[in-house]
Amino acid sequence: MQERPLTLPAAIGNTPLFRLQQVTAGVVPEGVEVYAKGEHLNPGGSVKDRAALGMIRAGERSGALTPGKTILDATSGNTGIAYAMLGAALGYRVTLCLPKNASLERKKMLRIYGAEIIETDPLEATDGAQRLAKQLAAEQPDRYFYPDQYNNDANWRAHYHTTGPEIWEQTAGRVTRFVAGLGTSGTFIGTSRRLKEYNPRVQCVSMQPDSPLHGLEGMKHMATALVPGIYDPAVADAEVEVSTEAAQAMMRRLAREEGLFVGVSAGANVVAALDVARALPPGSVVVTVLCDAGTRYMSEDVWGDARQAR
Asked: What is the CATH number of domain 48-145?
């Protein structure tokens, strides 16, 4: 019998879990497994598809998002692309505030989907975009639906209800460590809370850039940034800091050695996961997240020769 075709929102999630084989060699002890969840294979190309869909559906259920309203939010690019994609599919206009230095690929994708872009001061990163989006929403509440991804519980709940259960099922309940970076913190908070419900012994490790001035697009250096309202530092059992250079080097290695063409935040997550895994006993299972696709960074001078990163 022929399967019924999916709607676009139904295609989000259920991404594969890849075992990392090459980048772990000589680093991870024998008997320790490291996996990466392929969120770059979502239809919008990133993990943010889950949160964007969750926030849109929550807005519809509450009555805050109605036909004719425009979805407005601040973004570093990925959530914005997800909003724009879903807006096109569901019939909503989308306006996005994002730093002017967001990659050219992200801006092009947003415009292709039909979103309006308002560029903000790159020196203020996503914090400046947040401030402008909040101002616009306050000035025109009848025009905009403002999900406010940094302070919307529907963000982390999307991962609580989908990402966490998927990881638990895909590892047959064997996961012992979960590692993920902090941007809005939705992926880390929601997934960690669900995994800890399945097994309180699961250790959850957060990753963030090692300095305020960094190139990990979408990630926050919490000590110097506007801290998202959904972020709960008590969820993390440990923290790892990663440099931009190490993340870029790993991004190149993942493409050349694992066949995984992903972005710099995914590289940072894998660096953190290996840092955690190197000290674990046999039988440990570490899972991290490949946040987005490398196609979003083609114009950036970060690829070089992958052999230099070995």
From this structure: 3.40.50.1100
First CA to last CA distance, the chain: 49
The strand order across the sheet containing 70-74 reads: 116-120, 93-99, 70-74, 144-145
Tens-place pLDDT, residues 247-297: 999 999 999 999 999 999 999 999 999 999 999 999 999 999 999 999 888
Q: Which residues are marked as active site?
A: 48, 265
Which overall architecture, per CATH, does domain 9-45+159-309 show?
A: 3-Layer(aba) Sandwich (3.40)
Q: Which among 147, 11, 17, 13 is positioned nearest to 71, based on CA atoms?
A: 147
**pTM score:** 0.93
Residue 274 in contact with residue 249, Cβ under 8 Å? no
Domain extent listing, the chain = 9-45+159-309, 48-145
Q: How far apart are CA 278 and CA 275, in angstroms?
A: 6
